[in-house]
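Supplementary Text 2. Reproducibility record for the structural model of the 294-residue chain.

All settings were left at their defaults, and a single model was retained for analysis rather than an ensemble. We include the record here because the model underlies the residue-level annotations in Supplementary Table 4.
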Amino acid sequence: ERRGRKRDRLRRWILRQPAPKVHQWCLLLEEKVSRQAQRELVRLHLLNQEGEGVYGLHPLVREFFAAQLEAREEAMAWKSPFAEALVRAAKAISYTMTLAQITEVEALIPHLKELANFDAAQFSEDTSSACVYLDFFYGSQGLYALAEEWGVRSLEIREKQLGASHPYTATSLNNLAELYRSQGRYEKAEPLYERSLEISEKQLGASHPSTATSLNNLAGLYRSQGRYEKAEPLYCRCIEIFQAALGNDHPNTQTVTNNFQIFIQTVIENNQTAQLSDHLLTQQIIQQQTPDAP
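Retained model, structure tokens:
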């Protein structure tokens, strides 16, 4: 009964106070009272404990706070740091994650979906980035339909807000193409890869590392299709760009060189070396992999 009277006094005191700003909430209650408040909210099913130190609000409570937020002049200023912090946290999400890594980032997903619904005109890069990470999250689990939905949305936002020829638009094109390639949907992937490469060459230059990445990805598509004569010059050009821009020992240079070596091995195993040119790099790798050839 005494605790009930204390809670009633606390509620009456809060109601008499002006609405606090976000950073004041953490100072409003002592730790003991805060724990009591949490337990009371859980008892009333307005707060659900979903993990250690993690709570979920009842949908009606979320709706109430969302309406209150939109009515405040400070709404934009409050949303911006939230969006930036969330996108930073989401960088842990990639297209190749283990089950343990998926579990670690799973709590971010509802928040990323909320961010994806922010006004794209005001939060264009944050909303599109949220869509990218949602694409990666679902794609890493083989949930391709969901991944495609978010990948397409990211592309649409960037095309509308940044323009059809913006480098970030090229990134979204490449991400969507990678998703299609992973499913064997080569006819849908190819024009996206080609458009991404075209944008990179035009906006960043023919010798930019991002252009080299686009070359590598398109070459990988051609390799998957067995179109070796089209893949080889792209690999060679990609390696030359990375060597000139980053050096022979850079991880990117090493990765694409390894990709090219695997490519040459595939061509040799399929007896298709006739499709290859006499490019010096190509011939060097052929000699390394077939030292006994005449």
